[in-house]
């Protein structure tokens, strides 16, 4: 696996942890996601616990509860940019090549399955048939031009 693929995979995992899709994140991924979120809202590691401002646990809870979709651009060590996309919502259409997800705010995006797309249902590996119309999912992947390719799909 190339360094670019590893970076993109980690970014997808962190992004999904931020959106709270599926099972609770592992300790390392959860800590990384929390730190990124805290920095984004202005909380720094050197800020004391008694200082006014946003509390870390509250920020993480809000992000998990309220995040519907988003994207972030990451740059790897070779200087190449990748757009990481995440979305949570209901599947409105699905076939063997891809699926469409509608978030609670009405945003809709069509995804294609990536070459090595992983589907997880109840913390276990599942097949693409688990992604069907009416199912609530969290999905993360990459955007290249107008194509959005799923790399990780969490059912539930």
UniProtKB/TrEMBL annotation:
Signal peptide as annotated in the record: 1-25
PROSITE patterns: PROKAR_LIPOPROTEIN
Superkingdom of origin organism: Bacteria
Keywords: Signal
Keyword Signal carried by entry: yes
Identification of the protein by name: DUF5666 domain-containing protein
Species in which this protein is naturally found: Actinoplanes italicus
